[in-house]
Amino acid sequence: MHYRKFGKDDIQVSVLGFGAMRLPLRSADPGDIDLSQATQMIRLAVDNGVNYIDTAYGYHNGKSEMAVGQALRDGYREKVRLATKLPYWAVNAPEDMDQIFAEQLARLETGKIDYYLLHALSKTAWEKLKGFNVLEWAQSKLDDGQIGSLGFSFHDGPEIFRQIIDEHKWDFCQIQYNYMDTENQAGAAGLQYASSKNIPVVVMEPLRGGSLANPPENIRQVFQRSGITRTPAEWGLLWAWSQPGVSLVLSGMSNLEQVRDNLRIAENYESRKMSEAEMKVIAKVKKAYLDSKAMDCTQCGYCMPCSYGINIPANFAMYNEAERYNNYNSPKWQYVNRLKDEERASACTGCQRCLPKCPQMLEIPDLLERVHKALKPQ
Ligand SMILES: NC(=O)c1ccc[n+]([C@@H]2O[C@H](COP(=O)([O-])OP(=O)(O)OC[C@H]3O[C@@H](n4cnc5c(N)ncnc54)[C@H](OP(=O)(O)O)[C@@H]3O)[C@@H](O)[C@H]2O)c1
């Protein structure tokens, strides 16, 4: 395993961190973790040098912290640095923070959280937590040693990222980063900004939640044409490790084979940068992803406003995202949770007033029907 300096105490953390958000399950219930396999996976990783484990209050319906706590019995807790997060959505009064934190220590069977993050900060989440004086609360935990370092994980745009970075002297931060997301969320600009302030960056979703490890056939062909024999997961992890400013890369491994594979990848690749030729392969793959659109919507918005309030471009963007990565999980979630009833494809009456407005001459009502069929809840 390779290690990099991390944070205020120059601690050496393994470049591969274990993300406990995608642990193996015994049934379709996200809380029904296969504890025996999860323990084997976490211990295998630790036995092979992984010393950073990331979990959160909400993962696996609240069961991830407990699974991590159990896996770290028998002396494993002392071998790792543990990260977990404060769920802003569960904080509705200042005293909730104490109650959640106490629960986390109990679930994790520990007296200290080495790396504590404010979870999934966005503009709204940050404002909400500031309203409860979260920084003073966290400082008291830092002072009494219950928290080692304070950071935040992030899901919003680059300006908000800069703002949050500037409003506190953070020990570290965690961003979604992979070769498809350099312009998304904090993005490359955010990574550079945090680095310029000497704030260590932890990468989450290096394989875009698994999508980049299981690409559609057209993308596989681009990799194959490079003549380099390497799996898509290897390409994704190597790319993330190669980015200046990245301290460690979390992988949400979901079976023993993936743990073994990622340990091997970390061993083989981490210590070197990507060559120019390899960067060109990634650029081609990225272009191929971006070019692959199931629906030829350019997001120009000429079809808007829809007489019935449907957000036509957003519906098409979600469908294209699902098809592009051959992964419907996140777009389905967005379709249900990010769109209001009247904005969803299902609200189309077939009035056809949008048809003459589309420069791409898309058959919008038919396509909206296709979107709803693909993304509607089961
Ligand atoms: N704070 C936040 O807001 C937040 C948000 C997201 C993530 N996180 C943290 O960051 C961690 C990493 O993010 P992530 O879990 O999304 O990581 P990721 O590496 O992008 O995705 C993990 C998935 O990639 C696939 N995978 C991993 N290694 C593989 C391999 N060697 N071969 C083939 N497939 C492989 C698996 O998908 P399949 O199981 O489908 O094969 C696995 O479930 C999370 O576990 C969590 O701890 C935090």
Question: Characteristics of this structure?
Answer:
two-stranded antiparallel sheet, binds NADP nicotinamide-adenine-dinucleotide phosphate, TIM Barrel, 14% strand, alpha/beta, globular, 378 residues, 2 domains, eight-stranded parallel beta barrel
If you had to describe this structure to a student in words, what would you say it looks like?
- The chain has helices at residues 35-47, 59-62, 64-71, 94-108, 123-131, 134-143, 158-166, 187-196, 217-225, 232-241, 256-269, 276-291, 312-325, 329-337, 364-375; strands spanning 3-6, 11-14, 16-19, 52-54, 81-86, 113-121, 147-154, 172-176, 201-204, 246-251.
- With 378 residues, the chain is α/β, with parallel strands linked by helices.
- The chain folds into two domains: 3-283, TIM Barrel; 312-375.
- The strands form two sheets. The chain has an eight-stranded parallel beta barrel, surrounded by six helices. The chain has a two-stranded antiparallel ribbon with strand order 1-2.
- The longest helix is centred in the C-terminal third of the chain and has 16 residues, at 276-291.
- It starts with a strand and ends with a helix.
- The model has no long low-confidence stretch (mean pLDDT 94).
- NADP nicotinamide-adenine-dinucleotide phosphate binds at residues 19-22, 54, 119-120, 153, 155, 174, 204-210, 213, 233, 250-254, 258, 261-262.
CATH architecture of the largest domain: Alpha-Beta Barrel
**First CA to last CA: what distance?**
43 Å
What is the residue-mean pLDDT, rounded to a whole number? 94
The CATH class label of the largest domain is: Alpha Beta
Task: Please tell me what the overall shape is.
Answer: globular
Helical percentage: 40-55%
Query: Which spans have pLDDT < 50 for at least 5 consecutive residues?
Result: none
- Major β-sheet annotation: 8 strands, parallel, barrel
Reported by name, the CATH topology of the largest domain is: TIM Barrel
Work out the count of structural domains. 2
Q: Report the oligomer.
A: single chain
Rg for CA atoms: 22 Å
CATH superfamily of the largest domain: NADP-dependent oxidoreductase domain
